[in-house]
Amino acid sequence: MALSPADQALLDRLNGYNGNAYNAVSNPLGFARGGNQQGVFIASVKDIAAAGALTTGAVIATAADVALTHQDASNTGLDRIATSQSVTAAAGQVTLAAAEVTKAAGKVTLAGQEADRAFTQANRAMGYANGLNLPSVGLADAGKFYRVKADGSGIETSTISFDPVYAAIAVQSAYTLLVERQTRLNALNIAELRSDRLNMVDGIVDPYGDISDINAGASSNYAFDNTAKLIGAVTAAFATVTPFSPPVQSGNVAAYAFDGNTGTKWAAQSGSPGPFLGMDYGVGNAREVRQVVMQNGNEPFEVPRTVAVQYSDDDVTYNTATSFTPTTTTYGVSIVSIPAVGAHRYWRVLQTLANANSGYAFGISELTFRAAPSPMTLRSAAFASDVSNPALARLAIQIAPPLIAGIVVPNTDLVSSVSRDGGATFTPATLSAVETLADGTVLYEGFADISGQPAGSSMAYRHVTANGKDVRISGTIMQWRA
């Protein structure tokens, strides 16, 4: 190991110390004759200590080099061991790979055998089909199936008609309406019988089997439902602006669902999920839809199982206002209540669950988006009283469940009044609910003090709706006494 200049100078001084006479020029390292006084001895002791330290460091460094050499030798041995292990592992992998190749060869052999069997089965099936003499089919036969001819002479294509099923459903629906109607009539009769206990001596009951007892000239904005036998406010349909839909089938464009003609229809192309039909009311013409009326077309399989009514302001993001299950009859009408979700530019009906037999077909004969009902005034004809100048009147009104969502608040959304002077003066009755039928029909009852009205014996009632509520009246009782 090479020495530094300082270390070499140290060794040179150690070699130069002597017992001769000290001379600062010729013998500066001499101990005799004043050398000790000049510090030569002290300097020599320090140099001896420094030389010892230098020697110790050299020994330690040498030992470290030896240790490193030993470690390198050990690492070399470990590397050789690892290399040997890797070679052994590689040999094992080669053995496993050979086994996998053998397995794959076996599977290829099995696949070939399966292919042979499939080919044999196909030949047998082809022979069977040739023996059946099946007729050829094309696009016009979509949805049909093969069946044996009535005379047993061969095979033909045919369709299944669900018309009997739909007819049965229609009969059941009509029967249900009849039962509900009879239930309401019974409730009216029971309510009318209360007059004896209340000392009402005269009165009328109108279950609205017709509207012959309505004063049409004094009434406004009302409509009579001859099927359900009730009277409600007219809900105005929004004007058609720009209908829109995905691609249609056979020219059945979106506009056909808004033309007022049930002989035409809109129909989406089948085969694609999520067909829809909607209306764009244009920039700055947002509409608050509160009712949707959807009429089916002439194909029952085009009626979805579930439909969502949706709205949007940008024709990109749509929100669902409500969902419903359409009636399934041919040309059947579904009337759907829409909760208050505000005014929006785009409204549409979206198929969310297709008809089980349709392949996503969706067809609509007529579609109407309606506003909230306008205020209705319904005034009766005048009825002669057997009592002169009646003083107290009783009203009982049946309110059917609303088609448009919203709780009807009596005396606020519906104000009912009585007149004894033929309709010139009316006094409101304070209504409160007294009974709710199974179908949701509510019977309201109230009394009006008419003693302060001008003298008269010509009785009439008046119902006035407000606040855009859908009030549907299925019967009215008016009774009075002195």
CATH topology of the largest domain: Jelly Rolls
Oligomer: single chain
Radius of gyration over alpha carbons? 52 Å
**Shape, please?**
elongated
What is the name of the CATH class of the largest domain? Answer: Mainly Beta
The class by helix and strand makeup works out as: alpha+beta
The CATH architecture of the largest domain comes to Sandwich
The largest sheet is: 7 strands, antiparallel
Tell me the number of structural domains.
3
**Secondary structure: helix percent:** 25-40%
Model regions low in confidence, pLDDT < 50 over at least 5 residues? 165-177
Set out the fold topology.
Elements: H1 5-16, E1 18-21, E2 30-32, H2 40-132, E3 145-148, E4 155-158, H3 163-197, E5 202-206, E6 222-225, E7 230-233, E8 242-244, E9 266-267, E10 276-280, E11 291-296, E12 306-312, E13 319-324, E14 333-337, E15 346-353, E16 363-370, E17 377-379, E18 383-384, E19 392-400, E20 414-419, E21 427-428, E22 430-436, E23 442-449, E24 458-465, E25 472-481
Parallel strand pairs: 1-2
Antiparallel strand pairs: 3-4, 5-25, 6-7, 7-25, 8-10, 9-16, 10-15, 11-14, 11-16, 12-13, 12-15, 17-24, 18-24, 19-23, 19-25, 20-21, 20-24, 22-23
What can you see in these coordinates?
This protein has 482 residues and is an alpha+beta fold. It has three domains: 5-103; 184-231 and 375-481, Jelly Rolls (Sandwich); 242-370, Sandwich (Jelly Rolls), CATH 2.60.120. The chain is 29% helix and 28% strand. It has three helices and 25 strands. It has helices at residues 5-16, 40-132, 163-197; strands at residues 18-21, 30-32, 145-148, 155-158, 202-206, 222-225, 230-233, 242-244, 266-267, 276-280, 291-296, 306-312, 319-324, 333-337, 346-353, 363-370, 377-379, 383-384, 392-400, 414-419, 427-428, 430-436, 442-449, 458-465, 472-481. The strands form six sheets. Strands 5, 6, 7, 19, 22, 23 and 25 form a seven-stranded antiparallel sheet that branches. Strands 8-10-15-12-13 form a five-stranded antiparallel sheet, with no helix packed on it. Strands 17, 18, 20, 21 and 24 form a five-stranded antiparallel sheet that branches. Strand 12 and strand 13 form a beta hairpin. The longest helix is centred in the N-terminal third of the chain and has 93 residues, at 40-132. It is elongated, with a radius of gyration of 52 Å. The model is unreliable at 165-177 (pLDDT under 50).
